[in-house]
Design a protein that fits this description.
The chain has 15 helices and five strands. By secondary structure, the chain is an alpha/beta fold. The protein folds into three domains: 10-164, P-loop containing nucleotide triphosphate hydrolases (Rossmann fold); 174-207, no CATH class; 228-250 and 284-379, no CATH class. Helix 5 links the parallel strand 3 (111-115) and strand 4. The chain is globular.
Amino acid sequence: MTSLAAPAPWDAVWGQDEAVRVLRNAAEDPAALTHAWLIVGPPGSGRSTLARAFAAALIAEPGDTAAQNQVLAGTHPDLTALRTEQVVIRIDEARRLVERAYFAPSIGRYRVIVVEDADRMTERTSNVLLKALEEPPEHTIWVLCAPSDADLLPTIRSRVRVLRLREPEVDDVAALIVQRTGVDAATAEQSARHAQRHIGMAQRLATDADARARRDATLSAVLRVRGIGDAVEVAGEIVRVATEDAKALTAERDREEREALLRMLGVAEGAAVPPAVRSQVSALEDDQKRRATRSLRDGIDRVLTDLQALYRDVIVLQFGRDGDLINREYAEALRALAADWSPQRTLIVLDRIAETRANLEQNVAPLLALESLLITVAIGLVP
């Protein structure tokens, strides 16, 4: 864990002592500060939390906890943070970031631009940032976050300092979940293991029995796939459940955003939307649709991550390492599958899962992608 001596704003950062040391030093010593940073680490490793803590240390004067808390809450005028809820970061969003980068700090020591989903930039969008990263204005610091530096263009990577985060151990994540939520140790350990040490996902699994049940139902269904009919049926069920989850996550927020916009525009509750403001309402609805698409694809990607873990366990068993299973609860079924399949077939399925995840990022229809994947699972098609 972070050293007890580390003051705010670093208190919220967990399990990244070396990264905290590097960034604290950079915030305190201008000679160690680089104009652009890329924080990389696996999902759940705390990239965004660390980026915000770094921004707080840069913007606020040492010891100014009020300003630090403002930055951490995302309300400080010298912080600009982008966390897209859509499939990709749009080029107009990138242009707005660049515009903000050329503003002088208003009340803080630096202006900080945080891009939490830098891996979701297309090549065209990335090129918008290049000049700002190459010739940054004085007192502006860029902090990009991504799972891997390979997710960004070489031209971007050459203009940033890369800081790699460590991946926490299952026991460490479980202990943190117990501390944060008060769940029992067994549930916390299982959730940390199933989430593959992703802290946010582990916390959700530990505190949401329905989420644990959905995961169990999905993996059990996939393990029962034996033919094309099964594959089509299970693929449809996965998409249906993911769609319902996405709607549940976004419906209430969509309604509140629409009501707030109409109030701001002076439209009475229940009244028809005047023609003069329809374009603004339509723009909001378009953003909400893109967010719903992202939420659905993220939900399906979580399922695919679980399937990768499942078949990773199979290949582990096929190579004689039965003490290192992520899905210990399925040990009997996994051993049967490991005996029935060849390692080549398991590796083919793992490759297809990776291809399916990549295809979904390219807007392939989720149902067709999952049907194709599960047909491979069912009958062992070789690409």
